[in-house]
Amino acid sequence: MSRFMKLLPCAVAVSSLFAALPASADECKITVGRVVPISGPLLDMGRETPWVDDNKVNPINAAGGLQVGNRKCRIEYKIYDSKGTMAGSGEAATRAILQDKVDVLMAQGTPDTTNAPSDLCERYQVPCITSDTPIEAWLFGPDGKPKTYKYTFHFFFSVPDLVKNHVGMIKSLPGGFNGNIGYLYPNDPDGTVFASLFDPTFKKEGWNPVDPGRFAQGLPDFSAIINQFKRNKVEVVTGVLAPPDLQNYLQQAAQAGYKPKMYIIDKGTGYPEPMKAIGKNGIDILSVNFWSPAYPGKSKYGGYSGQGLVDAYEKQNPGKMYSPPLAYEDASYDVLFDALQRAGTTDRAKLLEALAKTNLETVVGTLKFNEQHFSVTPLGGAQWREAGGKLVKENVYNAVYPEVRKTGEMRLYQAK
């Protein structure tokens, strides 16, 4: 019995859902392989593992299992560390599929963790559910053409929505700005892609880019870039930075006395632990909000809202703040359980048919897979704040998806 079992407030709700179902002597077991970054550069995307797994699986097993047709099926999960790399996720998925022979694979956390497992599931014909990678980064292959998926189903935000949110947040800046926008796009895959996406978009808006070029990740000295922003009177700085680079840049900008009206930075700003490490210089930084309790929806297998899920996690993990992958992991299990129950069997072909027909409310919104096997989830605009000595992420922009409610008003960077 998991050490988390006695701590689960959601267990009562889920147990009541299954308690009335008839027991069956013809029991079965469904093994779920979970490829997650537990170590390496993406470990912030796996911090809620295995809490979220126990939160979903233990109440169902305590009630005798998930009713699938005329059988009750116990759910077992196995965690495989992707190490935050393409090679690591490929090795993990290969072990799960070929050695441990899992029935279903799940993978989450950037293309480095989702794409190799997706490809392997297609090769070995294993049902697969993935998330936490932008749709286009999962869908398109190295040749720039969309892949054809038969066994893998994916959900997350889309790049066009990302662009709309960035532009919308900049246009919503209190008091407006002078049109001078600075770039912090490093010479890595994220920086290269973001620059190619946003530069033409910003120019189309009539804004004046101040582009220092693609710099090396891990750059120790940002003074030349900061001075360039100062000389050109840059009032909005946008970029995609890993946490160490963001921390380094912000410290140097503060020392140089440079304070733009807005920072809108992705990647390093998505998770609470890196933002805690950045400290006071991170307060008021904006980023896209790819999940928070401001999202609509609730779990079919538990009945809780996003806020209920967060409250349970933070109560049982004192001193820790949730991160967005918590919700996508929770939703992945709901997608699987719902498909199994609608299929009425563990037969793979029937399960795949049921997955393709998914139309399910979850804590990340309603998921409904299209012919290319993906479902787009909402996006908002987040701003980090400090309240009562605690770090808080407020959703301050929702024009692209009004159903993601606002929890605060946008303000200028380091406004007093």
Walk me through what this model shows.
With 416 residues, the chain is an alpha/beta fold. It folds into 2 domains: 3-157 and 294-376, Response regulator (Rossmann fold, 3-Layer(aba) Sandwich), CATH 3.40.50.2300; 160-289 and 379-397, Response regulator (Rossmann fold). Helix content is 37%, strand content 21%. It has 13 helices and 16 strands. It has helices spanning 11-19, 51-62, 86-99, 110-124, 135-139, 159-171, 189-204, 223-231, 243-255, 272-278, 306-316, 325-343, 348-356; strands at residues 28-36, 66-68, 71-81, 104-108, 128-131, 152-156, 180-184, 208-210, 236-241, 262-267, 286-289, 360-362, 365-367, 374-376, 380-387, 390-397. A 7-stranded mixed β-sheet has the order 2-3-1-4-5-6-14, with helices on both faces. β4, α4 and β5 (128-131) form a beta-alpha-beta unit. The longest helix has 19 residues, at 325-343. Residues 1-25 have low confidence and may be disordered.
